[in-house]
Design goal:
30 strands; twelve-stranded parallel beta sheet; 49% strand; mainly beta; elongated; 16-stranded parallel beta sheet
């Protein structure tokens, strides 16, 4: 099926029910659906439901504008492409649970898991005029087999990018050239219960101007958190630390990244975290910004082992350059320049 309008401001569907779904696209019959050049809004305060909910096989959403939504777009297809789409004003009553985009909350009609064959979000903008109308999540990923986010600006939410499965796995996340800014937290990866997040790459992405933390990684459950690469990413102007890493994680790597002018640390690795690398970055004054409020790089006192911290610039921080509290002997902390 195809739903094609004359443009996102010319062809606008307005919902007058507080919880109804406007488009529900489900099952094998929805294979290769298209939604293009449409706008969605509401004439009442939304208290639940999505404007578009999909549990199909493959879909394409292009040049769509969502406004005044609770859940704007709820994706659980096997494969979906969303391009050149904007998500604007949310509902003031919806902060605790609302989200612009939710991925993997349901089972696709053909079976399997959401995004098993790939979901991509390209040139996505989220934002709100009224700060009080921020949703809880910009993009909320519950389950996904292969997810790409590119060239997007995800701003003004509780967590701009939220990857927090409580069961199942989010795997194969590729994110490039995108901002996750002006939110409570920028990028949050925090599985709980038996949920796992594995194999994620972020390149040229920013978690900046956050109320709390720019990039937050924690294994808060019994699942696996492993195989993350942050390359040329940045976390600055946060009310807490630029980057926080905690729990049982492995193979977490930060290469040529920046953490600057944060209230607390540039990057802090919690006690007893092992198997990580921080190399070739600037965790202090750079890019026209000041140093951090405490250390540029900090490993909290504990049993941390099997890590490399090397060749970083850590000048201009208020308390110091690198605090290495890990007691392990299989580590290398060298050539970090003040």
């Amino acid at each position: 099926p195809c739903f094609i309008g004359d443009g996102p401001t010319q062809s606008v569907l307005s919902e007058n029910n507080t919880t109804a779904v406007i488009f529900r696209i489900a099952g094998l019959a929805s294979s290769h659906y298209m939604i293009r050049d449409l706008g969605f809004t509401a004439s009442v305060t939304r208290l639940g439901g999505a404007f578009v909910e999909t549990t199909g096989s493959q879909g394409f959403i292009h040049r769509v504008r969502f406004n005044k939504c609770y859940h704007c777009l709820d994706i659980s297809d096997q494969a979906t492409m969303v391009r050149d789409t904007s998500f604007n004003e949310g509902e003031t009553t919806a902060l605790a649970a609302a989200q612009y985009v939710r991925i993997g909350a349901n089972v696709p009609g053909p079976g399997g898991n959401a995004c098993d064959y790939g979901c991509s979000l390209d040139n996505i903008f989220t934002g709100t005029v009224n700060v009080g109308n921020q949703p809880a999540f910009g993009i909320n990923v519950i389950k996904a087999g292969a997810l790409q986010i590119a060239n997007s600006n995800i701003i003004r939410a509780g967590n701009a990018l939220n990857i927090t499965p409580s069961s199942g796995t989010v795997a194969g996340v590729m994110c490039i050239n995108s901002f996750f800014d002006n939110s409570s937290n920028g990028i949050v990866i925090r599985p709980t219960g038996t949920g796992s997040v594995v194999r994620a790459t972020f390149s040229g992405c920013g978690g900046t101007s956050s109320t709390n933390t720019g990039i937050y990684i924690e294994n808060a459950g019994s699942g696996t958190v492993s195989g993350f690469d942050f390359i040329n990413c940045y976390a600055y102007l946060s009310g807490g630390s630029g980057v926080f890493v905690s729990g049982v994680v492995s193979d977490i790597n930060f290469t040529a990244c920046k953490g600057t002018q944060n209230v607390v640390y540039g990057i802090v690795v919690d006690a007893n975290v092992s198997n990580f690398t921080i190399t070739g970055g600037c965790w202090g004054a750079c890019g026209g910004l000041l140093g951090n409020g405490q250390y540029g790089i900090a490993v909290v006192a504990g049993t941390s082992d099997h890590y490399i911290i090397s060749n970083n610039r850590v000048r201009g921080n208020t308390i110091g350059t690198v605090f290495d509290g890990g007691s392990g002997v299989n580590k290398s902390v060298t050539a970090n320049i003040n």
